[in-house]
Specification:
Blueprint lengths: L5 H20 L5 H7 L7 H26 L1 H20 L4 H29 L2 H15 L1 H17 L1 H22 L14 H13 L1 H30 L4 H29 L1 H22 L6 H28 L6 H22 L7 H19 L12
Helix pairs in contact: 1-5, 1-6, 1-7, 1-8, 3-4, 3-5, 3-14, 4-5, 4-8, 5-14, 6-11, 6-13, 7-8, 7-11, 10-13, 10-14, 10-15, 11-12, 11-13, 12-13, 12-15
Protein name: Bcr/CflA family efflux transporter
Membrane topology: Multi-pass membrane protein
Keywords: Cell inner membrane, Cell membrane, Membrane, Transmembrane, Transmembrane helix, Transport
Length: 396
C-alpha cells in the first residue's frame, strides 16, 4: 500500500468527501435571496436541494464502477469538470429551470468526488491504517456542513448568492490541481475490472446479499440519515431560541469539534475492542442524545443549553460510528472498492432523503422530532448490526 505523504493525501481526500456537503449547505442561508431573485415561489427551495441530492445519490452507483474499469483519475477529473460546469450554469441562471439544471450537474460531479475519495482511501490504506485514515478524513469532512452555512452567509452578505456558487468553482479547481500533484492515479491497470452491465448488476446484488457489507453499511447509512435530519432541524430549533443566521452558522462551526474528538478516539478504540463494538457504542451515545434533545423541549429556562449538550453528544456518537462503519463496510472488498464505495454512498443519500422527507411529517416540536428520528435510526442500526450466522469481519 502507498502511504507516503499520507497527511497531504488525507487532506485531499477529506476535501473530496466534503465537496458534496459544502455544495449542499453553502446555499442554505442564501436560499431566500436566490429564490426571490429568480422570481420563484418559496416552495422552490425544496427542488433546489432535491435536484442536487437525487442526482448525487444515483450518480454514485455509476461513478464507482467506472473508476474500477477506467481508473480513479479520469473519472474524478471528469466529475470535477461536470461539477464546475454545473456551478457555472447555476451561478449564471436567469430562471429556476437553469438553476435546477446546474444543481443537478453539481450533484453528478460531486458523486464522483465522494465515491472516489473512499475508493482511493481503500487503494492506499488497509487494516488499522485504513481506520486511522478514515477517522481523519471523516473528522475533517465534518467541518464542511458545520462551517458551510456560515461561509455561505458571509459570502452572500458581501457579494450576493451567485458568489457562493462561484466559490464552489474555485474549490473544485483547487482540488483538481492538488489531486494531480499529490495522488494521481491510485489503481494500477492490472487491477482494473471489465464489468459489463449484467456483471455490474450482479456485483451490486452480491454486495447487497452479503452481510459483511450490508450490516455495517446500513448502520452507516442510517446514521448519515440522522445527521442530515440534524442539519435540517437545527436551524429551526435555534431560531426558536432567538438565534440569528450568523449565530446558527457559528453553532454549526463549533459543534463539529465533537466529531473531531470522537474521530480521533475511534481508531484507538477499534484497535482495542473491534470496530463493531465502536459502532455499537456510538449508537448508544446517539440514543442518549435523543433523550437529551427531548429534555430541551421541557426546559423553559435552560432549553438552549440542553439542546447544545444534546447536539454535542449526538455528534460525538456520529464521530465514532461513521469512520468505524465505513472501514468495516469497505475493508473486505478491496477488489470491488469503487463499486462498494458507490453502493455505500447511494445508501447514505437514500437514508438522508428518507429522513428529510419524514422530518416535516412528524407533528412534534422540532427538537422532539429530531430526537425521534435519531432514536429510530439508532435502533434500526443496532438491529442491522445484531449477531447473525456470519460474524462481522475486522476492517482488514
Amino acid at each position: 500500500m502507498r502511504t507516503e505523504s499520507s497527511p497531504a493525501v488525507i487532506l485531499l481526500l477529506a476535501a473530496l468527501t466534503a465537496l458534496a456537503m459544502l455544495a449542499t449547505n453553502i446555499v442554505l442561508p442564501v436560499m431566500p435571496a436566490m429564490i426571490a431573485d429568480l422570481g420563484a415561489s418559496a416552495s422552490a427551495a425544496a427542488p433546489v436541494l432535491w435536484s442536487f441530492l437525487a442526482v448525487f445519490a444515483v450518480g454514485q452507483l455509476f461513478a464507482g464502477p467506472l473508476s474500477d474499469r477506467f481508473g480513479r483519475r479520469p473519472i474524478l477529473f471528469s466529475g470535477l469538470a461536470i461539477f464546475v460546469a454545473g456551478s457555472a450554469i447555476a451561478a449564471s441562471a436567469d430562471g429556476l429551470t437553469a438553476l435546477l439544471a446546474g444543481r443537478a450537474l453539481q450533484g453528478l460531479g460531486a458523486a464522483a468526488a465522494s465515491v472516489l475519495s473512499r475508493a482511493v482511501l481503500r487503494d492506499l490504506f488497509e487494516g488499522a491504517a485504513l481506520a486511522r485514515a478514515l477517522g481523519w478524513v471523516m473528522s475533517i469532512m465534518a467541518a464542511a456542513p458545520g462551517f458551510a452555512p456560515l461561509l455561505g452567509a458571509l459570502i452572500g452578505e458581501a457579494w450576493g448568492w451567485r458568489a457562493t456558487l462561484v466559490a464552489l468553482i474555485a474549490v473544485a479547481v483547487v482540488i483538481a490541481i492538488a489531486h494531480q500533484r499529490i495522488a494521481g492515479e491510485t489503481l494500477p491497470a492490472t487491477q482494473r475490472s471489465r464489468l459489463g452491465a449484467r456483471a455490474l448488476a450482479r456485483g451490486y446484488a452480491a454486495l447487497l446479499a452479503n452481510p459483511r457489507f450490508t450490516r455495517p453499511a446500513l448502520a452507516n447509512a442510517l446514521t448519515m440519515g440522522a445527521l442530515f435530519a440534524y442539519f435540517a432541524a437545527t436551524p429551526v430549533v435555534l431560531r426558536g431560541f432567538g438565534i440569528g443566521t450568523v449565530g446558527i452558522g457559528l453553532f454549526f462551526g463549533v459543534a463539529v469539534f465533537a466529531v473531531f474528538a470522537a474521530s480521533f478516539r475511534a481508531p484507538r478504540l477499534a484497535a482495542r475492542v473491534g470496530p463493531a463494538r465502536v459502532i455499537a457504542l456510538g449508537l448508544s451515545i446517539a440514543a442518549v442524545a435523543a433523550g437529551i434533545a427531548v429534555a430541551s423541549t421541557l426546559s423553559d429556562a435552560h432549553g438552549l443549553i440542553v439542546y447544545v449538550v444534546a447536539a454535542a453528544v449526538f455528534l460525538f456518537g456520529v464521530g465514532l460510528i461513521i469512520p468505524a462503519s465505513t472501514a468495516l463496510t469497505l475493508g473486505p472488498f478491496a477488489a470491488q472498492a469503487g463499486q462498494a464505495s458507490a453502493l455505500l454512498g447511494f445508501l447514505q443519500m437514500a437514508s438522508a432523503t428518507v429522513a428529510l422527507l419524514v422530518l416535516p411529517s412528524i407533528a412534534l416540536p422540532p427538537a422532539a422530532t429530531l430526537a425521534t428520528i435519531i432514536a429510530a435510526s439508532a435502533l434500526l442500526a443496532r438491529i442491522a448490526l445484531r449477531p447473525g450466522r456470519e460474524p462481522l469481519p475486522a476492517a482488514a
